[in-house]
Design brief:
It is a single chain. The protein is mainly beta. It folds into three domains: 66-142, PDZ domain (Pdz3 Domain, Roll); 150-239, no CATH class; 247-342, Trypsin-like serine proteases (Thrombin, subunit H, Beta Barrel), CATH 2.40.10.10. The chain is built from two helices and 26 strands. The radius of gyration is 24 Å and the shape is elongated.
Length: 347
């Protein structure tokens, strides 16, 4: 996720090279140097709560269990294979697997014969076999629990009206069972209806509870990364933003400890601004999204939520009229504080 102040670690498409002369007393040129000049980047801070739906590249193995065969005998058909939780099944008997139903259909068509399974683990492709167990007259099972989609709610950080691209969450979406980053084929963001808010307490993170039933599509998700999700907006009207809301993305060196403003959506699906305090800045952190520590100081927000809660991830932060970052991880030991990341594009 390149940021506006970290252009040396990536292929620079949006920086231009310029020559500068170093002179003595403005009369004698000593040498000419070449430097990357970063243009001012403007985006629209959003802070709108949305629904997130991810579709995986295949089906994710999230569990294994013994099953009873047609004679009521307990069997673990997967035991002879090396398949593990966290593996992504992408093919069975030569048939591409894109959903749970694809796998069920292929296994049932095997009639109990070995099923050749191709799966991915740590970006490596493996092949193995499992002999399905017959559980009824026309049903066979592998003893694997699999998942092909993930859904939840989060907050859009910013939107670029020129490219139609958006960034959200500030962290990747992990599988609840395997704790691994979900590898996606595609996904979508939708409008969301906030149903209730559970306040955060010390040791217990609160959450925004929302519903995605009957909501409309806003855009598509292209990437799920450790630093957030990225994609394209197709229905910008649902974001309730204007091009006049665009602000510059701050350089890391411009971010200072002190007051800032958080934008998020809570009650009645209404976007509001709240006061926060930037307490720590890790300017040289290029490893992960733990770039700043932010504390909630706004009494109204503390009364509503008890601090920073799940669902607020991605909420943009403004300081001195510039976008400086977004919320990521809540500190369970102190719900008034949260880790934040610098804002930027995924390259």
């Amino acid at each position: 996720m390149p940021t506006s102040s970290n252009v040396n670690n990536q292929n620079i498409d949006y920086a231009k090279k310029e020559n500068y002369e170093v002179s003595l007393l403005d009369k004698f040129t000593i040498k000419t140097i070449e430097a990357n000049v970063i243009p001012k980047t403007k985006v629209i801070p959003v802070g709108v709560t949305v629904g997130l739906k991810l579709h995986t590249n295949g089906v994710l193995v999230v569990g294994m269990s013994e099953i009873k065969d047609i004679n009521n005998t307990k069997i673990k058909p997967y035991e002879s294979s090396k398949i593990q939780e966290g593996d992504m099944i992408i093919e069975a008997n030569g048939t591409p697997i894109t959903s749970t139903n694809d796998l069920i259909k292929t296994v049932n068509l095997s009639n109990g014969n070995n099923v050749n399974i191709k799966y991915v683990r740590d970006d490596e492709v493996y092949v193995d076999e499992i002999k399905p167990t017959q559980t009824s007259e026309a049903e066979y099972k592998l003893g694997l629990w699999v998942r092909d989609t993930a859904a939840g709610i989060g907050t859009i950080s910013f939107y670029d009206p020129d490219s139609k691209m958006f960034a959200a969450l500030g962290h990747g979406i992990m599988d609840i069972d395997t704790k691994d980053l979900i590898s996606i084929a595609n996904g979508e963001i939708t409008t969301a209806n906030i149903v209730s808010i559970a306040k955060g307490e010390k040791g217990i993170p609160g959450e925004i509870r929302g519903s995605l039933i009957g909501q409309s599509t806003i855009g598509s998700i292209a990437k799920n990364t450790l630093l957030g999700i990225y994609g394209t907006i197709n229905n910008s009207g649902a974001l309730n933003v204007s091009n006049n809301d665009a602000v510059e993305v701050a350089l890391r060196e411009e971010i200072k400890p002190g007051k800032a403003t958080l934008i998020c959506t809570l009650e009645n699906n209404k976007k509001e601004e709240y006061e926060v305090e930037i307490q720590k800045i890790y300017t040289n952190n290029n490893i992960d999204n733990k770039s700043m520590v932010v504390k909630i100081t706004d009494k109204e927000l503390l009364q509503k939520t008890g601090g920073i809660i799940q669902g607020m991830s991605g909420s943009p932060i403004i300081q001195n009229g510039k976008l400086i970052g977004c919320l990521t991880h809540v500190l369970v030991s102190d719900p008034t504080k949260r880790i934040c990341c610098f804002c930027g594009y995924d390259g």
